[in-house]
Description:
Bound molecules: FE2/S2 (inorganic) cluster
Distance between the termini: 63 Å
Number of strands: 32
Strand order of the largest sheet: 17-16-15-18-20-19
Amino acid sequence: MAGASTSGAAASPRPRGSDGPTVSEGAATADPQVIFTPSGRRGRVPAGTTVLDAARGLGVDIDSVCGGRGICGRCAVTPAFGEFAKHGITSAPSHLTDAGEIEAAYRAEHGLAADRRLSCTASLTGDAVIDVPPESQVHRQVVRKDLDARPFVLDPVVRLHTVDVVPPDLATPTGDLGRLFDALGAEWGLRDLHADLGVIRALQPALTRGDYRVTVAVHGGRDVIAVWPGFHDRAFGVAIDVGSTTIAGHLANLTDGTILASAGVMNPQIRFGEDLMSRVSYVMMHEGGEVELTTAVRKALDGLLAALANKAGIKRVEILELALVGNPIMHHLLLGIDPTPLGTAPFALAVDTAVELPASELGLRTHPGARVYVLPCIAGHVGADTAGVILAEEPHKATALTLVVDVGTNAEIVLGNRDRLLAASSPTGPAFEGAQISAGQRAAPGAIERVRIDRETLEPRFRVIGVDAWSDAPDFAARLETAGTGVTGICGSGIIEVVAELYLAGIITADGVVDGSFAARTSRVVADGRTFSYVLHAPGILVTQNDVRAIQLAKAALYAGIRLLMDQLGVETIDEVRLAGAFGSQIDPLHAMVLGLVPDCDLAHVRGAGNAAGTGALIALLSAAARREIEGVVRRVEKIETAVEPRFQEHFVEAMAIPHRTAANPNLERVLTLPARRGASAADRGADSRAARRRRRVEAATNAATTQPIAAIGATIATSATGDDR
Ligand code: FES
């Protein structure tokens, strides 16, 4: 990459024209004493020191873009007046200089609350107590309840700095870039600067247009990535979760962490294969296939950026930073790296550290200087999306043993606490997303998402996405018609609930057999060839024996992966469970536990975590400290490769039963009574022999997985789901 740089020691930014005030903490001097809240920092400064300079001298966090020119308004503070016995001072309005012309002009043009002052224009003439509101702090807390995101502290990676550059003169023929770097050093304490060729090209016109005042965007305190004439205070970033099915993003204001738009698009790679391994197979079997897949996902990302910018009412050229997460195959394909080594043992990642690169290298049309940060992958099947989940849910800081599961075509599993953290991936297949299910569909209006079955009448009631009523409500049909959705199928959360409810009603056995004897009790149970189905909604929406099998196989794979990690930690119970992902966060914890998706746990400690991977990307977008944190955590995560663990198959077969063949369910049985396990009926005996056949298939697949693609297990699962279970 072309560019230019200076050298020297790095230093902290400081406002224009200031070498920092002389701050003393001694008691009896004539200098005014200033106390900042909420930090509680206090000290004495010479009379006439601006509040901003005093704050910087005392290490108080106050924002600024304009460098004390009274233009940006980021430095607004609220002086507090009165007797402060606690602090031993009296703070009076007269202890600050009156608002001058600059502040009056700012107030007139942009508005400023009556009790606020610009700290860069207000000078101290006496003792004062100054409150710094959250919006004037650089490292303010970002709270996003709508995203299920934990509060986190903004730590901008990209910062804007306005400077006045000394005009050129014949006597001192320094280049413009050198004089820009000098100004950034003098006004903001920035050293070791570097600038891209694009910035160098744009600098002279910007200096001319701005009359030698320019604003620059500095990335990581070192790289000048953009320059604008005069004062400029707009900088935006985008966080994206590149999922194998959907690509979802948030566009945020980099200066204050506000999310301005969220949007998602389907991943166009689906046309090359529904699941990840079929896309890897496509690459293996088609020369140049990896280029097609890379092009498709990059185009989708570029389209998403356009949609987000449009929605937020900004220009895409104002996007300066991106943070991306994705599973290892998405990660590799997006970066143009061959994903085929991820398909066979030893499932080697091309890179397991974070990757930083110019956005232009991915063909993304943003600001030409924009950078992309890709979170680190953890292992061959545990990607940057899981790193995002960890960053969002912070199991590495928990004292309680915490399980975080991101359920999709593959389930990513993280288990541990602040002492030890393990991660694995388990091939659950696409059943949880509605694929392989006869009436399955993606979560969309019209999909059945909630189901209850009356234990006596065996009649169901349900809710569909887009209609705010249960199906047994008198006005359900009218509401359905108003919504115009119809009842179109069953989505993942609906499938979990209906199978769990069928089990609780006794219609399916612990081994997952739809009990045909119920056909005598209800017309809902109908013969379907040699097996039976349950009619959830006529016509056409049935839960078939194969549907139940597909769900059993998927949940058994998930449970077995979790159980492997528990074995590694030597634990029998888990304290906290977080269900992440579009599907995971919609699952009802009770039904998930009835079905045996996750080990028995206090239900009060099981909750959804939203799109935690996307939230993690957002945190990484807005916080340099979070990037350093996740890079450190990923290094100490212990990776467990489920495909080569001999105990996976044992756990898998045990977990085929509902909720589980052998594990106790003390927490679950505190809130409901599970059906009594029936004796060895003909159906059970048949199920046992089928389980033995499945076990042999899984053993064969897992034993082969060291030399064959992990898709072998998925293929076995698929075969079992549709094969000879009768
Ligand atoms: S620092 Fe910009 S207005 Fe005060």
